[in-house]
Every structure is written in structure tokens, then in C-alpha cells.
């Protein structure tokens, strides 16, 4: 059969892990070389959303789904204006994409955006290796750059670590912008962009919220300049231990007791603002099939995740903090990692996972309603006072 994409071209490529394990395959997407932290995603669908999620900045993503690219690339599903993954690893790229929305093949899109990938590698073996040894630095080399393995390994060992990486400002908007409410406007939210996914303000807009998306460097004054009914802190790449600026802004919001919601990086920032530590998980949670229990209702949700760090908060007791009592509201049932925090004495909460569900199941959509009801209650209280 003739092939329509370069994915099946026989240019050799090599994937070199920092511990010296090497996988050989074929070039996929752009030819050349790339470096990052090797992580795996178990999502069977939603590769466009994964590729364009700014939280994947500086990460080389291995897809555990064996066949990727089947539905091509459309203009509706990206979560931001570009692909952010540093490199892409798939076992068997679709040679002929087929979908009514498809505009081009995934391989063409990777080439157009200069994203270096590799295909034809045993992604099951690679994933098992990362699970056993942990996420680690990696390089992908193809075409002229496939040279002697020792030299490539030496270069991989020079790549900066994800631990200690401060990356939000590299991916967030430089200028503030507004996402208008859909239908009648009920609330204004200031959203601090640490690497926000497009679906997040959209989920708020669907609930009558006008979202003012602010740069990662926004100050407390910038946040309150939009006269917000609620404040939101987004997902984002890098190590939350480096996010001192957003932690200080969040403390300013907690002091004013404005309704507050955080997702993923936003959950880690809330954890830090309350005085908890964060730590790096061995290989993280990435995919759209992670079981999380909402400990308030006991219900289990199937949820979308993309995190390599987590909050270190006690699961079995209510913690006293300078901002009142806090409980761990959600927990991952695979490994008991903290997946949500809730303040008991003021209207603030956050989750480590992705209720915006792009891609992923919609089980957690109620969290946007919880945020909306916190703003409703605050508004009613203000009117009564
Ligand atoms: N999606 C996110 O916000 C990720 C948060 C953080 N960079 C982590 O890896 O844990």
C-alpha cells in the first residue's frame, strides 16, 4: 500500500534514556533531535488535547495506546495555540487518518510544528521501564543525528531535570484577555494562567462566567483590578516548589476570602499557600482513566490526569492552617495520592486532576458548579450584609 505520511518512512531514529536504556525505531514527525523528561500517558483517545496541553512543556510523551493518529488532526480540539510536548513516542502511527473533522495527518502536523518523534518502538516495554525506574530524562535522535550511543547518552545526561524547573511563565499568556460568558453574564472570574488549557475558561463561560485570563506574573492588585467574584489558578508545567510568585498571590486571595478554585498546578499552589509541601511522584499520573474518590460524597469518578508532582497533606485528619481548617477532599484510588483540597472555614478548594475533561470523561464537571455556587453564596451574603 502507498502511504500518505512520512511516518512510515524508514529513517532510523533512536530513543536514549538517561539510565542508558536504548530503544531503536523510525523517525516520526519532524526529523532531528529533542530532549525532555520521558513520561507516559494511558489515554486511548485525545492525542490532540495531550499534545497541546501546556503542562507537557519539556516532556517527551510516550503513548501507551498502540495505534495513534487514527482520526487525524482537526482545528477544534487543540487546548492551546501550539503543540507543547517536547517529543512524541508512538508504537504504530495511523497511515491513513479517517474522520469527518480531520484536516491533515498527525505526522504532517508534527512536521509543521517541528516536533521530533519516534515510532516503531515497543512502547509497552518502555512504559514498564518508566514505571519501574521512574520518569527520567530522554533524548530522541533521528536522521543525521543518530550517532554513537555513548555520545548521545552524555547529551541526555546534560538535560535539565524537571525537579526544580520553573516553567509557567514560558507557556502562559503575556497579555491579559477575556473569555466572555456564554449567555447571561452572572460572575467575573480572574484566572491566573500558569499554562491554562482552553477548555477551562470555556467550562466557566458555559456557566455564565466572564473569565479574565491573567499572565502568570499577575499580582494581587492585578487580580483585584478586574473586580472578581472568584479567583482561579490553572494547570501548568514544572515543579510547584518553584512557584513562589503564584503562592504569594494565592495567599493574598485567601486573606480576602474570595471564592477560590484551582486545578492541577493550582491545587499544588493552594497546598503550598496553606503550608503543605509538594513532592515528585515516581512516574506521575497521565491519562483519562484514573479513579478518584470524592471523600465528601463517597462517589468514585473516572478522571483525566496529568501530574508528576503531588501535595503532601495528611489524608486522615483535618489540618489547621493560617487560613482555617483544611481537608483532603479527593484521593486517587490507585495510589492514595492527594487529588483535592477543601477549606472548611472559607470558600476555597482545588483538585489535582482535570474536571475540564479535554480529553477525558465528564464525571468531574460538578466541580465547576461547586465553584459557581461558592460565588452565588458569597454574593448572597454580601447583599445581606
Ligand atoms: N497539569 C498540571 O498542572 C501539572 C502540574 C505540575 N507541573 C505537575 O507535573 O505535577
From TrEMBL:
<keyword id="KW-0665">Pyrimidine biosynthesis</keyword>
<dbReference type="InterPro" id="IPR017926">
    <property type="entry name" value="GATASE"/>
</dbReference>
<comment type="subunit">
    <text>Composed of two chains; the small (or glutamine) chain promotes the hydrolysis of glutamine to ammonia, which is used by the large (or ammonia) chain to synthesize carbamoyl phosphate. Tetramer of heterodimers (alpha,beta)4.</text>
</comment>
<dbReference type="Pfam" id="PF00117">
    <property type="entry name" value="GATase"/>
</dbReference>
<protein>
    <recommendedName>
        <fullName>Carbamoyl phosphate synthase small chain</fullName>
        <ecNumber>6.3.5.5</ecNumber>
    </recommendedName>
</protein>
<keyword id="KW-0436">Ligase</keyword>
<feature type="binding site">
    <location>
        <position position="55"/>
    </location>
    <ligand>
        <name>L-glutamine</name>
    </ligand>
</feature>
<dbReference type="GO" id="GO:0006526">
    <property type="term" value="P:L-arginine biosynthetic process"/>
</dbReference>
<dbReference type="Pfam" id="PF00988">
    <property type="entry name" value="CPSase_sm_chain"/>
</dbReference>
<dbReference type="GO" id="GO:0044205">
    <property type="term" value="P:'de novo' UMP biosynthetic process"/>
</dbReference>
<comment type="pathway">
    <text>Amino-acid biosynthesis; L-arginine biosynthesis; carbamoyl phosphate from bicarbonate: step 1/1.</text>
</comment>
<feature type="region of interest" description="CPSase">
    <location>
        <begin position="1"/>
        <end position="187"/>
    </location>
</feature>
<feature type="active site">
    <location>
        <position position="354"/>
    </location>
</feature>
<feature type="binding site">
    <location>
        <position position="265"/>
    </location>
    <ligand>
        <name>L-glutamine</name>
    </ligand>
</feature>
<dbReference type="InterPro" id="IPR002474">
    <property type="entry name" value="CarbamoylP_synth_ssu_N"/>
</dbReference>
<comment type="pathway">
    <text>Pyrimidine metabolism; UMP biosynthesis via de novo pathway; (S)-dihydroorotate from bicarbonate: step 1/3.</text>
</comment>
<feature type="binding site">
    <location>
        <position position="268"/>
    </location>
    <ligand>
        <name>L-glutamine</name>
    </ligand>
</feature>
<keyword id="KW-0055">Arginine biosynthesis</keyword>
<dbReference type="InterPro" id="IPR036480">
    <property type="entry name" value="CarbP_synth_ssu_N_sf"/>
</dbReference>
<dbReference type="InterPro" id="IPR035686">
    <property type="entry name" value="CPSase_GATase1"/>
</dbReference>
<feature type="binding site">
    <location>
        <position position="309"/>
    </location>
    <ligand>
        <name>L-glutamine</name>
    </ligand>
</feature>
<feature type="binding site">
    <location>
        <position position="236"/>
    </location>
    <ligand>
        <name>L-glutamine</name>
    </ligand>
</feature>
<dbReference type="GO" id="GO:0006541">
    <property type="term" value="P:glutamine metabolic process"/>
</dbReference>
<dbReference type="InterPro" id="IPR029062">
    <property type="entry name" value="Class_I_gatase-like"/>
</dbReference>
<keyword id="KW-0315">Glutamine amidotransferase</keyword>
<dbReference type="InterPro" id="IPR050472">
    <property type="entry name" value="Anth_synth/Amidotransfase"/>
</dbReference>
<comment type="similarity">
    <text>Belongs to the CarA family.</text>
</comment>
<dbReference type="InterPro" id="IPR006274">
    <property type="entry name" value="CarbamoylP_synth_ssu"/>
</dbReference>
<feature type="binding site">
    <location>
        <position position="308"/>
    </location>
    <ligand>
        <name>L-glutamine</name>
    </ligand>
</feature>
<feature type="binding site">
    <location>
        <position position="238"/>
    </location>
    <ligand>
        <name>L-glutamine</name>
    </ligand>
</feature>
<dbReference type="GO" id="GO:0006207">
    <property type="term" value="P:'de novo' pyrimidine nucleobase biosynthetic process"/>
</dbReference>
<dbReference type="GO" id="GO:0004088">
    <property type="term" value="F:carbamoyl-phosphate synthase (glutamine-hydrolyzing) activity"/>
</dbReference>
<feature type="binding site">
    <location>
        <position position="306"/>
    </location>
    <ligand>
        <name>L-glutamine</name>
    </ligand>
</feature>
<feature type="active site">
    <location>
        <position position="356"/>
    </location>
</feature>
<feature type="active site" description="Nucleophile">
    <location>
        <position position="264"/>
    </location>
</feature>
<dbReference type="GO" id="GO:0004359">
    <property type="term" value="F:glutaminase activity"/>
</dbReference>
<feature type="domain" description="Carbamoyl-phosphate synthase small subunit N-terminal">
    <location>
        <begin position="11"/>
        <end position="141"/>
    </location>
</feature>
<dbReference type="GO" id="GO:0005524">
    <property type="term" value="F:ATP binding"/>
</dbReference>
<comment type="function">
    <text>Small subunit of the glutamine-dependent carbamoyl phosphate synthetase (CPSase). CPSase catalyzes the formation of carbamoyl phosphate from the ammonia moiety of glutamine, carbonate, and phosphate donated by ATP, constituting the first step of 2 biosynthetic pathways, one leading to arginine and/or urea and the other to pyrimidine nucleotides. The small subunit (glutamine amidotransferase) binds and cleaves glutamine to supply the large subunit with the substrate ammonia.</text>
</comment>
<keyword id="KW-0067">ATP-binding</keyword>
<keyword id="KW-0547">Nucleotide-binding</keyword>
<keyword id="KW-0028">Amino-acid biosynthesis</keyword>
Amino acid at each position: 500500500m502507498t502511504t500518505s505520511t512520512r511516518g512510515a518512512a524508514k529513517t532510523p531514529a533512536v530513543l536514549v534514556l538517561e539510565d542508558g536504556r536504548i530503544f531503536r525505531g523510525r523517525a516520526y514527525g519532524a526529523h532531528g533531535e529533542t530532549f525532555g523528561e520521558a513520561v507516559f500517558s494511558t489515554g486511548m483517545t485525545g492525542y490532540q488535547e495531550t499534545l497541546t496541553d501546556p503542562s507537557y512543556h519539556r516532556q517527551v510523551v510516550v503513548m501507551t495506546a498502540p495505534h495513534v493518529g487514527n482520526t487525524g488532526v482537526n482545528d477544534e480540539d487543540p487546548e492551546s495555540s501550539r503543540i507543547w510536548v517536547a517529543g512524541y513516542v508512538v508504537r504504530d502511527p495511523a497511515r491513513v487518518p479517517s474522520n469527518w473533522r480531520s484536516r491533515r495527518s498527525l505526522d504532517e502536523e508534527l512536521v509543521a510544528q517541528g516536533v521530533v518523534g519516534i515510532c516503531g518502538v515497543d512502547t509497552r516495554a518502555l512504559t514498564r521501564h518508566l514505571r519501574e525506574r521512574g520518569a527520567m530524562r530522554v533524548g530522541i535522535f533521528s536522521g543525521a543525528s543518530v550517532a554513537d550511543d555513548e555520545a548521545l547518552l552524555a547529551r541526555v545526561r546534560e538535560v535539565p531535570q524537571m525537579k526544580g524547573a520553573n516553567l509557567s511563565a514560558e507557556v502562559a499568556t503575556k497579555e491579559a484577555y477575556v473569555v466572555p460568558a456564554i449567555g447571561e453574564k452572572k460572575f467575573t472570574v480572574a484566572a491566573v494562567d500558569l499554562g491554562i488549557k482552553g477548555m477551562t475558561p470555556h467550562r466557566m463561560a458555559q456557566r455564565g462566567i466572564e473569565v479574565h485570563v491573567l499572565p502568570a506574573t499577575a499580582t494581587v492588585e492585578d487580580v483585584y483590578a478586574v473586580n472578581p467574584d472568584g479567583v482561579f489558578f490553572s494547570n501548568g508545567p514544572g515543579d510547584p516548589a518553584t512557584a513562589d510568585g503564584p503562592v504569594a498571590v494565592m495567599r493574598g486571595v485567601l486573606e480576602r476570602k474570595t471564592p477560590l478554585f484551582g486545578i492541577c498546578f493550582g491545587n499544588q499552589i493552594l497546598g503550598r499557600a496553606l503550608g503543605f509541601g509538594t513532592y515528585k511522584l515516581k512516574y506521575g499520573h497521565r491519562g483519562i482513566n484514573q479513579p478518584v474518590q470524592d471523600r465528601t460524597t463517597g462517589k468514585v469518578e473516572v478522571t483525566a490526569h496529568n501530574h508528576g508532582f503531588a501535595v503532601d497533606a495528611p489524608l486522615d485528619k483535618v489540618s489547621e492552617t493560617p487560613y482555617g481548617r483544611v481537608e483532603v477532599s479527593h484521593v486517587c484510588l490507585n495510589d492514595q495520592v492527594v487529588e483535592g483540597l477543601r477549606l472548611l472555614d472559607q470558600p476555597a478548594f482545588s483538585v489535582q486532576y482535570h474536571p475540564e475533561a479535554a480529553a477525558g470523561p465528564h464525571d468531574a464537571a460538578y466541580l465547576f458548579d461547586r465553584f459557581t455556587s461558592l460565588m452565588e453564596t458569597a454574593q448572597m451574603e454580601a447583599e445581606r450584609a
